[in-house]
From TrEMBL:
InterPro entries: ATP-cone_dom, RNR_lg_C, RNR_lsu_N, RNR_R1-su_N, Rrm1. GO terms for molecular function: ATP binding; ribonucleoside-diphosphate reductase activity, thioredoxin disulfide as acceptor. This is Ribonucleoside-diphosphate reductase. It comes from Mytilus galloprovincialis (Mediterranean mussel). Its EC number is 1.17.4.1. It is an enzyme of class 1 (oxidoreductase). GO terms for biological process: deoxyribonucleotide biosynthetic process. It catalyses: a 2'-deoxyribonucleoside 5'-diphosphate + [thioredoxin]-disulfide + H2O = a ribonucleoside 5'-diphosphate + [thioredoxin]-dithiol. Provides the precursors necessary for DNA synthesis. Catalyzes the biosynthesis of deoxyribonucleotides from the corresponding ribonucleotides. Belongs to the ribonucleoside diphosphate reductase large chain family. It comes from the Eukaryota. One of its GO terms (cellular component) is ribonucleoside-diphosphate reductase complex. Keywords: ATP-binding, Deoxyribonucleotide synthesis, Nucleotide-binding, Oxidoreductase. Residues 1-79 form the ATP-cone domain.
Length: 325
């Protein structure tokens, strides 16, 4: 077992500094984690994690960790892009028994129609250009999963994005794929998440104004923010028209509690939507004309940022206020 693991790691050490990168040292630590019934996938995961922890000894260990993890993904996923797309489109949710496509019908039809061209354009060795942190980020959030198991390789994702953007213009899609794959540029997260899927929301940022200073206006805006967050959009919301603490409320003959309680509601909604979303949402709420109210929010922020459970996700501090000046 020792020789087999070492040999696998050694094959992935090409181009790395052999004076510092020691496959046997990784194997020794992996062997210590063995248990009856351990799978090769688990061994690869352990080897990659072990190599990543040794990055402090030499940066080449980070590259080796990425290679092990990516090689492991390649073993566990299909190679042919059109076949992967077919699986993503035809997926049946085992909990409901219903067709639950991960990509849109239009995207699937384009890929199948142009399968030969798209399949031959894929260059899977480019997956190995990612470092460990970058790959694990892709694996965790960006690569599409079937029944909680990653089904896409990074190159599959990039081609899906390219086809989702250009649709039937296959030459443009392949050109975009190559530019993305060679890292000449990248698209923002919503595009990478959603292009080619059944929810093709590709915009990164949405700037909103509170609908009105009323229960209806505040909660209509809250719903809009939640729907944007669901599809990974960023939010900038001005609250200029929300009355400050102590203001009179004619409709109820009451007194307003000001911005702070409302901001807590927005923050808690953002945290709740995060449980379903594919990336953390950090909405920015800003105001121009609340004077002492800003001082109150700033004082509260300084206290609550020390404790994770009290609003650190929503930036409602002078940072937003100063942006508006």
């Amino acid at each position: 077992m020792f020789d087999k693991i070492t040999s696998r790691i050694q094959k992935l050490c090409y181009g790395l500094n052999s004076d510092f990168v020691d496959p046997a040292a990784i194997t020794l630590k992996v062997i210590n984690g063995l248990y009856p019934g351990v799978t090769t996938v688990e061994l690869d995961n352990l080897a990659a994690e072990t190599a990543a922890t040794m990055t402090t000894k030499h940066p080449d260990y980070a590259q080796l960790a990425a290679r092990i993890a990516i090689s492991n993904l390649h073993k566990e996923t299909k190679k042919v892009f059109s076949e992967v797309s077919d699986d993503l489109y035809k997926w049946i949710n085992p909990k409901t028994g219903k067709h639950s496509p991960m990509i849109s019908k239009e995207t699937h039809e384009i890929i199948i129609k142009n399968a030969d061209k798209l399949n031959s354009a894929m260059i899977y060795d480019r997956d190995f250009s990612y470092n460990y942190f970058g790959f694990k980020t892709l694996e965790r959030s960006y690569l599409l999963k079937i029944d909680q198991k990653v089904a896409e390789r990074p190159q599959h994702m990039l081609m899906r994005v390219a086809v989702g953007i250009h649709e039937n213009d296959i030459e443009a899609a392949i050109e975009t794929y190559n530019l993305l794959s060679e890292k000449w540029f990248t698209h923002a997260s919503p595009t990478l998440f959603n292009a080619g899927t059944c929810r093709p929301q590709l915009s990164s940022c949405f700037l909103l104004t509170m609908h009105s200073d009323s229960i209806e206006g505040i909660y209509d805006t809250l719903k809009q923010c939640a729907l944007i967050s669901k599809s990974a959009g960023g939010i900038g919301l001005n609250v200029h028209n929300i009355r400050a603490t102590g203001s009179y409320i004619a409709g109820t003959n009451g007194i307003s509690n000001g911005l702070l309680p409302m901001l807590r509601v927005y923050n808690n909604t953002a945290r709740y939507v995060d449980k379903e979303a594919i990336r953390d949402q950090v909405p920015l709420l800003y105001t121009l004309n609340h004077g002492m109210q800003i001082s109150l929010i700033s004082w509260t922020a300084r206290r609550t940022l020390e404790r994770k459970s009290r609003g650190q996700e929503t930036c409602s501090m002078p940072c937003g206020y100063q942006i508006c000046l």
